Amino acid sequence: MTDLLALIVQQSVNGVYLGCLYVMVALGLTLIYGVLNQINFAHADFVTVGAFTAFFTVTRFATKVLGIPDTGAYLLSLFAALGAGALLGWVVSAAVFAPLRRRGADELRPLIATIGVSVLLENGQLALFGPIPYQFDSPLARETIRLGPIFFSGQSALVVAVSVAAIAALYAFMRFTFMGKALRAVAQDRETAGLMGINENLVIALTIVIASALAGVAGAMLGPVVVLTPFTGASLIVKAFAIVIIGGFGNMEGTIIAGLLVGIIEAFTVQYLGSGLIDLVVFAMLLAMLVLRPTGLIAERKEENV
Amino acid sequence: MLISIGVIAALPWLLASGYWRGILVLCAMNVLLALSLNLVLGYTGQLNLGQSAFFGIGAYVSTILIKTYGWNFWLAALAAVGAAGLVGVALAAFAVRLRGHYLAIASLGFAVITYQVLVNWESVTQGVRGIYGILPPVPNTVALFYLVAGIGLLVYFLLDNLVHSPVGDTLRAIREDEVSAAALGVNAAVWKAFAFGLGAAIAGLAGCFYPGFVGTLVPDAFGIVESFTMMAMVIVGGMGTMIGPVIGAIVLTFLPELLRGFGELRLMVYGLALTLVVLFMPGGIVQAWIAFRNKLA
Amino acid sequence: MTALLKAEKLHKSFGGVRAVYDVSLDVPAGSIFALIGPNGAGKSTLLNLLSGVYQPDSGSLSFDQANLIGLPAYERARLGIARTFQKIRLFKQLTLLENVLAGFHIRQDVPLWKCFFPGGAGRFRDEAMDLLSSVGLGNRGNDRAGALSYGQQRMLEIARALATRPKLFMLDEPAAGLNSAEVGLLLERLSLIRKGGATVIVVEHNMDLVMNIAERVLVMDHGVRLFEGTPREVQANPGVIEAYLGGEFAA
Q: Do C112 and B167 touch (CB under 8 A)?
């Protein structure tokens, strides 16, 4: 019996590790939705950009140019990915979201615009990197840590550590800094926040940058675990949506719980049903959620005002 | 109308290489797809990102019926169109309960699930290995082009009349404001089912010709990327008009071909065109053309 | 007079907030019935219950002998109930003519298959133009609805609803945002509608309109029925005056 228990715990640990990655991705999505009421369809492609940035930092830059050993190179690549994500977020915010906001566009146009950005990023990366999957080996994946009967790799430990740190930092930011509070104000009521002297555009841009930075780092950590091609984002985005919907759009706690949940479900599905069916299970969950409780596990309904 | 027939008849002789004739066939298929999506997205205002699923259902159902059960092409096509239409009506059930970006995500999820079914149900679909050796219903590319373009012309004719009929008024009412449409007696659920079903059936019809055109059928052509491409064609051309999707399909089929000199970067045309159009000219090429004409007047 | 619309003990709460509580009313056929009350009284909610936007938590509702409970809004429109909305809901991207044509949906009798062929267009174009002219918009049929002024949009909304040839026409604060000339036009329209045999229910703040045209008035406050009577009786009733804090009823 202990074998079965150990197996369950092992899978749960795997699930938590996977879940943390998903949380990092989904958190950015939910942040952007919270502050802008818009869905960034290109978000998962930010993740891919982060992954490729990290990959090239490790393989071309850090070891060859700077001569840093493996682990250090990988850690450096995390920062590079963070920077790349932030930069990309800033560009998209300034070039796409801000102009649409100025023109008073409805909710349909920005959504389609982000689809356009997504297609653009995917094809751009296809042109630069080609369609063949890249082998991204993290040096930490080879190190195994053992806690009783449970095994996990150094990579998993890093992922969990980084995610927890990032989430903690985010919470601290939102709670204790002025900018963080401004962010929450804008998320609740943009007009009033503006009237109270908060520069909404700055806050929105900052939110997008933070969200994209998170996505970038997630990419750096996700790179070694998935099939890395320019189209990785396309398969990831629906999973991210599933998490945000299950957790409730704009609801940070819900997203975290949902992300971990999806990670654990995926870990168990891979073990017992085979990897081909994961996507199916997750997306079936998504559709079920949309039908039964479109506002998420925790959020409340808003009656339409007629 | 006659001009179009004349142009279509002449095209395979103007672009006389095997390669360009192939592009013509692809273009005709894209026109069909864009028209099908425009009915749901442009006229009924439903954010449907799952249209590629119906394209795939049409392709697979017809091919499997022909190859495994020996059906005649036209009967198989009929069955495939029916199947796609039925699934379209099922997707409409989501559209009744969901709005805006929720529907977008649900339809996207639907497309992914369909793709996964095509990949994983190997006993029936052969999964990623693909189905080989599929023959088109007519012997050569030129004939195939005439066939698909002819069907495209017919579909255009029927849809054009439809959107100018009271049905068009009803669909547009749903697009503009469902609540007051209901106060005018419009049963939104039924009409959404109609739009989705018809749009799906047309996409399925296009799907029937695709396997014969490429020879090998794999699930890869029916994913999210294909849905996005269709949407780009509708929006870049001019959403909610009849000629818009046709223009969009033609432009976005030929532009990447004309840009072959730029290597892989040419595919960025889709994303770039879509983003720029949404930012600066949401009504697409049609809007630009009307604005241009007004400036001259 | 027979009651065209009968509501009994309607209740509607939203998550613990009682919007409408134990409200009953009888609307006689062919009359103009006004629903007034301070802000938040539940008037719009009551109208939404009558038109089918909301279903009541309990109570009964019938129209012309037909039971309305459970019937969705589009079915009620088919029975002959039309309405306008407090926040004007037009098809902004469509032309005026297209807006009104959409109103003929219930009366369209072209079979579906015919719509795929030329000549499937309905026969209501002339009637639509007449409706537009009757509200003073006859020469702007091809303009975009979004381009009209607020008062004109309100009249367009009314014209569109009239296309359904309703037996009961409900208007939610139609005079809000209208200048006095536009209110005059509205009054004319309403009495013409009544002369045509329809029954009218108006939710209103504008006392001129209510006093001028209503035959019976129901006053609501905090979701309950406060008083019902003729306009004169309402004006004299001390409970009503108190509810309004004497403001609008200063004699």
A: yes
Per-residue exposure over A97-124, b if at least 16 CB sit within 10 Å of its own CB, e if not: beebbeeebeebbbbbbbbbbbbbbbbb
Six token digits for residue C95: 């032309």
Q: Cα–Cα distance between B157 and A59 in angstroms, integer?
A: 57
- Residues of B within 8 A of C115 (CB-CB) are 161-162, 165-168
Q: What is the pLDDT of residues B181-227, one digit of tens each?
A: 999 999 999 999 999 999 999 999 999 999 988 888 888 888 888 89
Give the position of tokens 């079965």. A4
Number of CB atoms found within 10 A of residue A142's CB = 11
Round to whole Å and give the CA distance between C216 and C207. Answer: 13
Domain boundaries, chain A: 2-126+137-292
For residue range A100-114, what is the model confidence (pLDDT) as tens digits?
A: 888 876 777 888 899
Closest CA to A241 of B106, C124, B81, C188: B106
CATH class, domain C1-80+166-251, is: alpha beta
Considering CB atoms only, which of B109, B268, B270 is closest to A286? B109
Dihedral pair phi/psi, residue C9, rounded to 5°: 50, 50
Pairing state of beta strands C199-203 and C32-36? parallel
Q: In DSSP terms, which residues pair with A134 in a beta bridge?
A: A228
ipTM of this complex prediction, to 2 decimal places: 0.88
Q: Quote the minimal CA–CA distance from B175 to chain C in Å.
A: 9
**What count of other Cβ atoms lies within 10 Å of the Cβ of residue B151?**
19
What's the CATH class of domain A2-126+137-292? mainly alpha
Domain membership of residue B255 (yes or no) is no
Q: Give me the domain span that covers residue B53.
A: 2-226
Tell me the three state secondary structure of residue A251. Answer: coil
